[in-house]
Design goal:
Number of strands: 11
EC number: 6.3.5.3, 3.5.1.2
Shape: globular
Pathway: Purine metabolism; IMP biosynthesis via de novo pathway; 5-amino-1-(5-phospho-D-ribosyl)imidazole from N(2)-formyl-N(1)-(5-phospho-D-ribosyl)glycinamide: step 1/2
Order of helices and strands: EHEEHEHEEEEHEEEH
Catalytic activity: L-glutamine + H2O = L-glutamate + NH4(+); N(2)-formyl-N(1)-(5-phospho-beta-D-ribosyl)glycinamide + L-glutamine + ATP + H2O = 2-formamido-N(1)-(5-O-phospho-beta-D-ribosyl)acetamidine + L-glutamate + ADP + phosphate + H(+)
Pfam families: GATase_5
Largest sheet: 9 strands, mixed
CATH topology: Rossmann fold
Subunit structure: Part of the FGAM synthase complex composed of 1 PurL, 1 PurQ and 2 PurS subunits.
Radius of gyration: 16 Å
Strand order of the largest sheet: 2-1-3-4-11-10-9-6-7
Length: 235
């Protein structure tokens, strides 16, 4: 079967084209979707890409969470469709209450970009099943509003229920509580993270590794895992 993955473009999206390329390299068909639409065009999975939707006014992702297409995104999430929010997309998911907590300005008040080490905390989601718990991966990070926050009760719940998908390793780049870099919902179909897996999909363009400069492709497994999850659910 041909797996079709929708990538939603919002005003101010920057990485929608990169996300579409990642989908294509994972063996699926990327489908461009528009924030003002109410039509998901029959896609099997969704990506909310990085960028600065609506100029990050109010709070990053806050206005995008109210975009017309987000009604369909919420319905799709409730039905179990795999949905990935990357950076600004992660911010949209928490603002839309599809993931718990919130994201605020980095603790040092500066934009940061770096190749970031992550530890995989949950490998039972549609987007992380090709990793192993405890595995360390390297994914590029670039954000100004990546500080994850949550109430004590929410933090206890997400830790207790295994909803932390990734934690920062080596350095916490933005002051996120408990080193949280990414989350999943209870069902495991919705995942959000601040680093950008679509920038680690192709040799020659990814993070440096011990093997060679820019040879890191850890991000590709996010997309191939989702493709496999869709195929398995259709079998």
């Amino acid at each position: 079967m041909t797996v079709r993955v929708g990538v939603i473009t919002f005003p101010g999206s920057l990485d929608d084209g990169d996300a579409q390329r990642a989908v294509r390299l994972a063996g699926a068909e990327p489908v461009a979707l528009w924030h003002g639409s109410h039509d998901l065009d029959g896609v099997d999975a969704l990506v909310l890409p990085g960028g600065f939707s609506y100029g990050d006014y109010l709070r990053a992702g806050a206005i995008a969470a109210l975009a017309p297409i987000m009604s369909e995104v919420k319905d799709a999430a409730a039905k179990g469709m795999p949905i990935l929010g990357i950076c600004n997309g992660f911010q949209m998911l928490v603002e839309a209450h599809l993931l718990p907590g919130g994201l605020i300005r980095n603790a040092h008040q500066q934009f940061i970009r770096r190749d970031q080490r992550l530890v995989v905390e949950n490998a039972d989601t549609a987007w992380t099943s090709e990793f192993e718990v405890g595995q360390e991966i390297v994914i590029p990070l670039k954000n100004a509003d990546g500080g994850y926050i949550a109430s004590a009760d929410t933090l206890a719940r997400i830790n207790g229920e295994g909803l932390v998908a990734f934690r920062y390793a080596g350095v916490n780049p933005n002051g996120s509580i408990d080193d949280i870099a990414g989350l999943t919902n209870e069902r495991g179909n919705v995942v959000g993270l601040m680093p950008h897996p679509e920038h680690a999909i192709e040799p020659g363009f990814g993070p440096d590794t011990a093997a060679a400069m820019r040879s890191g492709v850890d991000g590709l497994k996010f997309f191939t895992a989702a493709v496999s999850a869709v195929v398995a659910s259709a079998a």
